[in-house]
Amino acid sequence: MKGRFISLEGIEGSGKSTQLNFIIDYLQTNNIEVVSTREPGGTLVSEKIRDVLLDDKLPSMHMDTELLLMFAARVEHVKAVIQPALDLGKWVVCDRFYDATYAYQGYGREIDLKRIDMLKDFSIGELAPDLTLLLDVTLDVSMDRVTKRGNKDRFENEKIDFYKKVRDGYLAIAHNNPDRVASIDATGSIEQVQTAIRIKLDELLNE
What we know:
- By secondary structure, the chain is α/β, with parallel strands linked by helices.
- It is built from 8 helices and 5 strands.
- A 5-stranded parallel beta sheet has the order 2-3-1-4-5, with helices on both faces.
- It is globular, with a radius of gyration of 16 Å.
- The termini are close together.
């Protein structure tokens, strides 16, 4: 069986961690061998880069530094984890992938999207998810959930204007990539969100 690649996207507080576990369980009940991973991260080197990116105690970094660190972590992740798993026919479920870079660094930081295009093409070529599930929540829901979690990282400490741009970016990505990106209202109950996700997974399973 051909390996398939699913990415999960959304702003902070969208419920990705909860739904990631549901996706893995659902695929496994369909006898799919699944590799679960995340970005930035997924390898020892990439996790170290993640620590730098999320550490709110470090001095502020230039947005270009942030962008390059994201792609440095991604190259290691793709070469060591994602592509080998796909080559073996496994399904990969990833908490965030390159759409997050466009949303956060492109729309959020206002880095030219063409520069991100160039870095993506250079670093990972044509690799793209077969399905991207965008868990969309309002800014009020996002901020409320993040506040209740406590222990905010560098991104979670950003102002609401930043997250408005990030969310707008995600919605633009979904609009521009309707064949790949499924936008799901994640403000409802966990069960309602899972029902919507299950429909999309079944479509992919039946292709």
